[in-house]
């Protein structure tokens, strides 16, 4: 679907030439800056220039490994990673920055101007009590024991009233009702603006969370026994240590229980995330079955009468579901769940469920690797997203940034719309896609109408009780969707402190947390803004145009489906070859979709940047603007800089035991590297900008492109 217009071929060459000359005289520009703003901008430009150069490895060949060229020195400027440490990425740095900023905001006193903000004060108090509470004390012990008793006990602990009539379905339903926990049974309530109260569609799904990391908890991953065994052994030790520290148990008392918990989870994982890790099954997928709310006995019967679905749903939603529709989304998972629930002894089910709940209540075991203040800031964001979001927004929103980002959005959307004008798409398909794009009117920012925590009794009580109230409050908020269809549902998806964008029905919502350096600064040149924010916006819009499984106008058009299927296969082959040197062994459909939208995002953002350049008149004021498109002392053209900065927004570092031997080149082919090299390698203009000959690693002849 790629089409290089005449514009993209000729224009950049001329402009690059002008700009290349201009980058040699940055001093002259600096001296002209007289007012504070320009001086500030100059300081920022110098700092950014130094940063770009610092992370690059100029020895590397950009046509062989662009990641190394742009990010080769990035890791050496990060803290040294030890075994077990989480990898560092630009995203994780940004998340950390936001966490620090939120910590600072929560540490400050409540605003005293105007009406005293009760909500703000309550939330700050919650944060403070989280900071100072002892991680284990008699208060905490008492709280835990009460909690365990309330949910039918734990066989490990005498005196918690556990007995053989333990009803696991009822316990997980009550944990969902009170706290929104999704153990064993996943559930989503799908509302539309037309849903009547209590009439939403309820989907039964795999649970979204697991003890094992996501990529290890899947049907495909479980087959890789060596990888999984290494992780499970570690996790088993950690579970045993947790149980020892919470209840003062001895090592030998906890070993077997920890082993049971892990084994049980592995059995669950065996049937999870199949579409992300196993080859698609040849026989046609059965349509997801839909059951009437009054007919749930049939659903239970279809799954061996092990799970009383009516009771589960009515308990967890605290309401009748007689008038709802229930869609069974993951039949293979539920068949398996029914089987292992029947085969495993009750104590194993109990231990699994209760361990997961207790792990959410207690502090992380190792407070050196998870410092308390950061953890508490995160809890506060999780439980009171609206209050913290509003505080964050009041501190960081700026109308000029908003306007700037909105303009970028318009340019990107316009460019995407134009690039749909390709021959292999039918007229009808082009029209359908363009209309679809029109619905996404603008860039949206979280708005806050104030919540009311007045009745939330957070004061005068210890942290454990406060946290319990907060967790229940969050569970209650989530349940609101079922009753009444929350009109503000869309607006609750992204908070001001979030560092991501999300596609909604009428636009893309972005958190203010994303509009911070290194991703964004008001004084960045357009080359930087288009390279950093541009692909994020374009990627969301492109994703909206890729047909999904649901039957829509898009999936009915054969020309769209054919292109989409071809492009998917192209990426599958490319990525399988890259990772494993065998075509067709990579199955994660979500990842393939991500590669496709990532690649579209980069292509569109670069085209949009060229479009912006073309609108500039290289005289007068525009000339001044164009002069700032490069960075002082960085001898790359503005368009080369675009790709370098794009790559640098994806640098990462992770712990490696030893350098992989160089005679096994495939060992250095990682997902993170492909996210830079693979995406750039599929971009035609990239190769031209860096003069990469066709057939070099960064300019393969089997490019995959969509838009
Ligand atoms: C599949 O890819 C998605 C997107 O990259 C990722 O979040 C998910 O963990 C992957 N699934 C598995 C089972 O690895
Ligand atoms: C469940 O509903 C009843 C009656 O409507 C109500 O009194 C009770 O507080 C609700 N329970 C929860 C946990 O929301
Ligand atoms: C906690 O984490 C730190 C840093 O990762 C590590 O050095 C330390 O050994 C850990 N302590 C325990 C008790 O696991
Ligand atoms: C899709 O792939 C098939 C088989 O490789 C090819 O014949 C067809 O022309 C491709 N269609 C498009 C629109 O690229
Ligand atoms: C994989 O299956 C899950 C659960 O059924 C579904 O939510 C998800 O959208 C599917 N992913 C893809 C890429 O089809």
Automatic annotation (TrEMBL):
Position of the signal peptide: 1-30
Gene Ontology BP, a term: protein processing
Topology relative to the membrane: Single-pass type II membrane protein
Pfam families the record matches: Peptidase_M13, Peptidase_M13_N
Keyword Ribonucleoprotein tagged: no
Alphabetical UniProt keywords: Hydrolase, Metal-binding, Metalloprotease, Protease, Signal, Zinc
Keyword NADP listed: no
Protein's UniProt name: Membrane metallo-endopeptidase-like 1
Organism of this sequence: Bactrocera latifrons
Lineage, uppermost ranks: Eukaryota, Metazoa, Ecdysozoa, Arthropoda, Hexapoda
């Amino acid at each position: 679907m790629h089409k290089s217009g005449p514009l993209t071929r000729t224009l950049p060459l001329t402009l690059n030439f002008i700009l290349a000359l201009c980058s040699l005289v940055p001093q002259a520009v600096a001296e002209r800056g007289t007012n504070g703003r320009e001086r500030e901008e100059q300081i920022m430009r110098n700092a950014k220039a130094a940063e770009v150069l610092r992370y690059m490895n100029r020895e590397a060949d950009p046509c062989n490994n662009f990641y190394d060229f742009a990010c080769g020195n990035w890791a050496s400027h990060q803290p040294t990673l030890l075994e077990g440490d989480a990898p560092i990425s630009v995203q994780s740095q940004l998340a950390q920055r936001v966490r620090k900023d939120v910590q600072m905001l929560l540490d400050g006193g409540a605003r005293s101007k105007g009406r005293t903000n009760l909500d703000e004060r309550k939330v700050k108090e919650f944060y403070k009590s989280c900071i100072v509470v002892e991680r284990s004390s008699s208060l905490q012990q008492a709280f835990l024991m009460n909690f365990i008793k309330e949910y039918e006990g734990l066989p490990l602990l005498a005196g918690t009233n556990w007995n053989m009539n333990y009803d696991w379905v009822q316990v997980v339903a009550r944990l969902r009702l009170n706290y929104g926990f999704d153990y064993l049974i996943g559930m989503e309530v799908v509302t539309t603006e037309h849903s009547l109260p209590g009439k939403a569609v309820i989907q039964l799904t795999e649970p979204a969370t697991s003890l094992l990391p996501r990529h290890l908890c899947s049907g495909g991953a479980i087959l890789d026994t060596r990888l999984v065994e290494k992780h499970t052994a570690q996790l088993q030790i950690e579970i045993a240590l947790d149980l020892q520290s919470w209840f003062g148990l001895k090592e030998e008392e906890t070993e077997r229980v920890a082993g049971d918990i892990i084994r049980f989870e592995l059995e669950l994982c065996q049937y999870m995330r199949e579409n992300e890790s196993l080859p698609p099954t040849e026989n046609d997928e059965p349509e997801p079955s839909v059951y009437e709310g009054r007919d749930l006995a049939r659903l239970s019967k279809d799954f061996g009468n092990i799970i009383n679905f009516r009771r589960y749903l009515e308990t967890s939603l605290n309401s009748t579901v007689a008038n709802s529709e229930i869609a069974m989304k993951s039949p293979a998972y539920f068949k398996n769940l029914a089987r292992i629930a029947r085969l495993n002894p009750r104590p194993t089910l109990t231990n699994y469920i209760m361990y997961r709940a207790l792990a959410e209540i207690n502090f992380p075991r190792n407070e050196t690797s998870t410092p308390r203040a950061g953890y508490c800031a995160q809890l506060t964001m999780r439980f009171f997203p609206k209050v913290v979001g509003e505080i964050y927004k009041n501190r960081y929103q700026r109308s000029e940034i908003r306007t700037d980002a909105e303009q970028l959005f318009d340019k990107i959307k316009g460019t995407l719309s134009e690039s749909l004008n390709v021959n292999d798409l039918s007229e009808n398909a082009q029209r359908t896609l363009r209309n679809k794009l029109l619905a996404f009117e603008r860039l949206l920012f979280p708005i806050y109408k104030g919540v009311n925590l007045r009745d939330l009794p957070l004061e005068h009580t210890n942290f454990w009780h406060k946290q319990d109230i907060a967790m229940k409050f969050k569970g209650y908020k989530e349940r609101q969707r079922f009753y009444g269809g929350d009109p503000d549902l869309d607006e609750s998806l992204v908070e001001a402190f979030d560092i991501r964008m999300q596609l909604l029905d009428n636009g893309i919502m972005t958190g203010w947390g994303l509009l911070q350096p290194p991703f964004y600064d008001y004084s960045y040149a357009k080359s930087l803004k288009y390279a950093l924010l541009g692909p994020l916006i374009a990627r969301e819009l492109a994703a909206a145009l890729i047909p999904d499984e649901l039957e829509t106008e898009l999936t009915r058009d054969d020309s769209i489906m054919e292109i989409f299927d071809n492009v998917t296969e192209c990426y599958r082959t490319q990525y399988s070859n890259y990772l494993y040197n065998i075509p067709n062994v990579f199955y994660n459909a979500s990842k393939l979709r991500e590669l496709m939208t990532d690649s579209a995002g980069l292509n569109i953002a670069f085209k949009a940047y060229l479009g912006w350049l073309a609108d500039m008149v290289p005289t007068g004021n525009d000339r001044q603007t164009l002069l700032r498109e490069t960075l002082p002392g960085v001898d790359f053209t503005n368009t080369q800089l675009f790709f370098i900065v794009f790559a640098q927004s994806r640098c990462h570092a992770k712990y490696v035991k030893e350098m992989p031997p160089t005679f096994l080149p495939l060992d250095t082919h990682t997902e993170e590297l492909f996210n830079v090299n693979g995406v750039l390698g599929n971009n035609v203009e990239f190769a031209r900008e860096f003069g990469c000959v066709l057939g070099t690693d960064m300019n393969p002849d089997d490019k995959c492109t969509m838009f």
